[in-house]
Amino acid sequence: MQRPSWDDYFMTIAREVATRSTCLRRHCGAVVVKDRRILATGYNGTPRNLRHCEEVGCLREQRGVASGSNHELCRGIHAEQNAVVQAALYGVAIDGAVIYSTHQPCVLCAKILINAGMSEIVYADPYPDPLSEEMLAESGVGLRRHGADGPVASQ
Q: pTM of the predicted model, to two decimals?
């Protein structure tokens, strides 16, 4: 049996983390890694102590909000955001880390990841957000699609 590459290994873990998602629309997972060590994980779903969308329904569906717009109209928190929050909650320094995410980050997540000090974002599934890509490129945070050759937006 051939061992997986580090990228494959961490992306597989991000996909497993996504199985904990309580979102009715999309299951996302994220893993923050530094020096080949997992520092934090996150999946998308409602904040703690709130009822899950599985119980109360999807606010975005109820209000007819299109995918990729009005991110604030949602009970859930994104996987990347949850991973950063988990690191902060437990006092784990993530500056200079790489985040593996099942999906390309939206602009809200991109801004958080820039300020959290991520050096690179490796994602599996595209979620085109031109503003996110522009901000990541300008900030110098690398953005790379898993399995693709070379950088996607920035290096």
A: 0.91
Q: What angle do CA 45, 115, 107 make, to 5 degrees?
A: 55
Query: Which residue of the set 80, 120, 133, 134 is catalytic?
Result: 80
Express each pLDDT in 49-90 by its tens digit.
Answer: 999 998 999 988 899 888 878 888 888 999 999 999 999 999
Residue 55 corresponds to which amino acid? E
pLDDT band at 149 (very low <50, low <70, confident <90, very high): low
Percent of the chain with pLDDT over 70: 95
* 133: annotated active-site residue: no
The CA-atom distances, in angstroms, between 79 and each of 71, 126, 148, 151 are: 13, 15, 22, 22
Q: Which class for 19: exposed (0-12), middle (13-18), buried (19 or more C-beta within 10 A)?
A: exposed
Computed from CA positions of residues 104, 82, 97, 136, in that sequence, does the dihedral angle turn out positive or negative? Answer: positive
